[in-house]
What we know:
A: alpha/beta; 3-stranded antiparallel beta sheet; B: alpha/beta; 4 helices; about 25% strand; 3-oxoacid CoA-transferase subunit B (chain B); CoA-transferase activity (chain B)
Amino acid sequence: MKLPDKTTTIEAAIARIKDGDSVMVGGFGVPGTPMTLIRALVDHGARDLTLIKNDANEPDMGIDHLLQSGQVTRLITTHLGLNAHAIALMNAGKLDVEFNAQGILAERIRAGGAGLGAVLSDIGIGTELAQGKQVVDLAGKPHLVETALRADVALIHAERADTFGNLAYTGTAQNFNPLMAMAADCVIAEVETLLPLGALTAGEVQTVGVFVDHVAELETLSEEYAVVQR
Amino acid sequence: MSSAKDRMIARAAREIAPGMVVNLGIGLPTKVVDHLPAGFPVCLHTENGLTGIGPTLPPERADRNLIDAGGAYVSTVPGSAFFDSATSFAMVRSGRLDLTMLGAFEVAANGDLANWKIPGKFSPGVGGGIELAQKARRVVVLSTHTDRAGNPKLKAECALPLTAHRCVARIFTDMAVIDITPQGFALREIAQGRTLHEVAQATGAPLILPDAPPPTF
């Protein structure tokens, strides 16, 4: 037996994205942000997208390209503090932004990837973030129903992969990637190094290839992946 | 940085006890680490996925895949671990953080904290702030005593949207160390060169003063 080969090109993988799709994007700041897949999505031109990403990167970086090109209608996120351009779009009413507590966004995605309908938590009770959410009583304490999140597509960045789509990450580049890689109908991973089957040992695998649909090796790492000079 | 602010940060560093797991919030709190003695036994957590934060590195020595939650390039120490965002906040929500130090726009006399939104002016999103404020075992605030216009940040009640209710235990400012008690703000220590009257005047709610002259920092 041999595990199936899921390798493809960046462009062929991105071509599957349609107008109106919801798209999860890994990354927290630069680490783990799939810069090349994002650029390809700009070139592809799909519009009216809902993006789900921890942060909006910084101006002229990462998903800011998709915000600038006007392809994004809605953004589900936790923090935009490093991207004044995203905040300006939101304040001008040109971008619909839904803020989540960071760990709650992670849990909603994890629940979506785990086949659950929601998680219950007391985070944010009595604050603006609780508004509009269903409250259930659990052992005498109120909990918010935090509904599971899934997406049509997830864009993932991993350090290493094999041809089956088993993934391994490095440093603080894990963040939302392993969670999002389980929570979309079509999971596309860009990888810095593509290895033959067996070269990524079973114990090193952090995202199991079963969750991953397409793997594309990066030919080069653009400047966007580099250390940010501030 | 003014010497009063520097002494505030140095004083806050003494709040960290050996063996603690600590999350230092973005901004002033991250500077606390510079005041810890070399080899001090502490585990620093950053919510983007690292326990065991080592020294901050200049760009030429930085690893592009190794940042803290504020985007600063950091390093690891022997025993560091990387993890995903769900694991990171599992630590926070389940009470594994002994201490978090956060910035503040306003702190109320009952410990309510507002530090994420100024409606119409500043609303970048709360990030991990709610979970840190609500679930760390001890929450202390590191902040200037007044805002840039000179208005008190310590108030009877918060006017701004809350981050979490009744979460703050202690406040380190450039003027004083103040505890939240059942009776309200209580002064514990005072900055060198400040008078009790000055601190009380700059505080927007009743301030309980000690009977004896308080220690200075």
